[in-house]
Amino acid sequence: MTHKEAFKKALSHQDVTPVPWSIKFTVEAKERYERYLGKKFDPVADLGSYVVASHTNNGWTEVKPGYFRDHFGVVWNKTEDKTLGIVDEPPLKGASFSGYDFPDPDANPVFGFIEADRAKYPDSFHMVSIGFALFERAWALCGMENLFDFLINEPGFTHDLLDRVTEYNLHIIDRAASLGVDCLHIGDDWGSQKSCLISPDMWREFIAPRYRRTCLRAKELGLIVSLHCCGNVEAIMEDICACGTDVFDPFQPEAMDIWTLRDRFRGRMSFWGGLSVQHTLPHGTPEDVRREGLDLLARMAPGGGYILAPSHSLTGDVPPENIASFIELARNQ
Asked: Fewest C-beta in 10 Å: which of 100, 254, 284, 296?
């Protein structure tokens, strides 16, 4: 069974042995692990991760050292956080599109990435990953505080903004599906460590209709729908499932009761992740990592619907020995 076949089988709620797994690195974590190994590595070809993600957020233009302009014209300061960065200056200066033109989705380099990745890794599970997909794209364009203000005081503009972002995403999905990807991976963080960033009712008004439409388009094209959403979003998990989410990532034990959620949605929605990147991986021992991973496999995996992985991209403070422990467990189940 290829990695692609195993991944799809698990997400259709069937038992798979070994359990499919994946691992993602921040820039800092990858650099540290390469120093530990004494060589560069490919997470798929060298480590065995099942997943290849072609990202819409790659291929940015460096405008000055450490500062990068994304495809929407937002400049990100990556001098401290090399992986994500922070918005340097939002391009929308108010509740208006005056002076701003939305990008052409066909100009996004992701389509070239998809073709190259599918040729390089033919047996892997392939995703087109739309990062900063909706809510995050809106605050990147406006600024976080301004978007919160617009949600309350400029709802018409906010609906228009989210509609335009959705249309961009739908075009990406249509073309990516024609290139043979298996999955749409949506990245849009809606939670803080303790709760949703906006009220559940506001999420249902502004985000849910566009997210549901996005899921529907992907499913019409035969794609699996994966949602990456950080934080505690337990209050809207039923909505997330009802919108058409097939698999939820990164499944953070630091923010949510992952055991209860797994039981509650078993057979309805799959889960991907769960091994703590806030506690166990950075602060535990290799044996702690192994123990937590075995617990996840024993309790989460039966019946399918589970992908073994850390609860987010590995950060630069994770000891390489703990990364090696996870990889050894994942590869030798």
From this structure: 100
How far from chain centre, in Å, is Cα 162?
19
In angstroms, rounded to a whole number, what is the distance separating the alpha carbons of residues 85 and 66? 9
CA-to-CA separations, 119 to 111, 116, 130, in angstroms, rounded: 13, 5, 20
Topology of the domain covering 3-52+121-331: TIM Barrel (3.20.20)
Q: What is the pLDDT of residue 293?
A: 98
Q: How far is residue 123 CA from its own chain's centroid?
A: 21
Angle at 210 between CA 208 and CA 216, to 5 degrees: 100
Q: What is the DSSP letter of 131?
A: S
Task: For residue 64, give every residue at least 6 positions away whose Cβ sits within 8 Å of its Cβ, in sequence order, or none.
Answer: none
What does the chain come to in residues? Answer: 333
Amino acid 14: pLDDT: 98
Predicted structure pTM score: 0.96
Which sequence spans correspond to the domains of the chain? 3-52+121-331
